[in-house]
Amino acid sequence: MKPYSAWNVFRNGLSRQKGWERAWRDPEPKTEYDVVIVGAGLHGLASAYYLAKNHGITNVAVLDKGWLGSGNAGRNTTIVRSNYMMPGNREFYEHSLKLWENLSHELNYNVMFSQRAHVSLLHSPAARDGAARRYNTMRLTGADGELWDLPTLKRKIPHLNYSADSRFPIIGATVQPRAGTARHDAVAWGYARGADQRGVDIIQNCEVTGVERTANQVTGLKTSRGIIRGRKVGFAVAGNTSRLWRMAELGKLPIESHKLQAFVSEPLKPLLDQVVVFGVGGAHFYISQSDKGGMVFGGDLDWYKSYAQRGNLPIVQDVAECATSILPCLGRVRLLRHWAGVMDMSMDGSAFLCKTPLSNLYLNAGWNYGGFKASPASGWYFADLIANDRPDPVILNHALSRFERGINIDERGAGPDPKLHG
Amino acid sequence: MLRIPCPFCGTRDHSEFSYGGDASVEYPALEAPAEAWLEAVFQRDNIDGVQLETWQHLHGCRMWIVVERDTRSHEIHSVRPAHEGLASALAQSADPVNES
Fold this sequence. Notes:
The complex is a heterodimer. In chain A, strands 1, 2, 8, 9, 10, 11, 17 and 18 form an 8-stranded mixed beta sheet that branches. Chain A is an alpha/beta fold. Chain A has helices spanning 6-14, 42-55, 89-101, 103-107, 125-140, 150-156, 184-197, 241-247, 313-326, 371-388, 402-405, and strands spanning 32-38, 60-63, 79-80, 118-122, 146-149, 172-176, 180-181, 201-203, 208-213, 218-223, 226-235, 255-267, 275-278, 285-289, 294-305, 335-346, 352-355, 361-365. In chain B, the strands form 2 sheets. Chain B has a 4-stranded antiparallel beta sheet with strand order 3-4-5-6. In chain B, strands 1-2 form a two-stranded antiparallel ribbon. Chain B has one domain (3-95): Folate-binding fold. Chain B is α+β, with helices and mostly antiparallel strands. Chain B is globular and about 40 Å long. Chain A binds chain B through residues 240, 242-243, 251-257, 303-308, 312-314, 347, 403-404, 416-419, and chain B through 1-2, 13-15, 18-19, 21-22, 34-35, 38-39, 41-48, 51, 53, 55, 71-74.
């Protein structure tokens, strides 16, 4: 496989673009692999990539019922940040951000990672104190964080609604300058290409329909393209984890599937250089501008459990109200499209990267709202977990057993109600 | 928008309601062992299909109801009051206030 480079772009420009190869193969599935990962989303593909890259395990298959990256990989608002406070999450997301910072070079694929800063608006002194505590805690792990006072914020983002008579007047912001956005499809394609180059088989249109097991092992996966066996099997199918879990007859999970909508407007000239977050009272809203100019934004979950990849109108209204309340200049901008993805909402808002009751089955699930930014570190630690059959100390508590041990990782302190962990 | 037929108020938009959660969960006795509470508080079937779930008609009669709904199509199959006594009283009534 020839690397992508300025020279190759130039050379192919002279040869009518005939010299490009396809980015990954479309292999027939073998009947047996060292590792089979279910789900060719960002997490599954990243896991396969790091299994090959970090651990030299290349006899790997990644199965997907559709095409790669067809699920939540393309159904997010592409925000990358590491401003988490709980032990475990803090180190995990900071490691992820560090991987993001070098991802385009690592994959030889431009993921268009733009460290444009993540700006959370503040509306009360109490919120500012809370944010200062959070950012001081983050800095202990080596992450970055700043507090912007009102004059600084006005200088950086002049067109927010700063009127004193707004329902929630803005008094400043907490900022993570290294945070930003990336191109979601490119991440899936980059990991797919990198994994494929190292010998991983990415099997698309291959739906898992059943799990064959003994008392303590997975012996094979029934798929729409025949039985595929893996010496080790990983599930990375957030949104549908409970369905696979039931196929494996493993009972219940501390997860509910909820849907989250996201929106993109018609393209505008450059308007917003940062990711801006508005969260106060009942409002929950985040917005950035894509390289094509569309305003990309989202808000709350739809508030009821669902496996349908389509959203409801009250949230459209809610999000539009939030948009116009902090950026009144968007009032006459039209929506281009909106979509919904099915999230694994866990009982404490944190993920699962862990071993399971079956000795050769590993679980990557429960990403709530945070799956996109997590994908590099998720793949990194999941590959490590599968290769070495033990969790890295960073993900030690990201296990299903944390609830019985009373060590929930609840960033929001919202309690065991999945829909509240937005 | 889901349209939920409240047994007391008639059919209303779901934005009048607040979603509770899985109605099949049975909470154990206070003195039950920790495992039973772990099961009730944290573990869910997370059904892809028809499930029982609780909703509260927050901006209406404020009653809790049990809705039988398909989580893939959002189709609502049945609705009854969460309170067993009310549910059986309503079931016996010849003319339930169900459609408006």
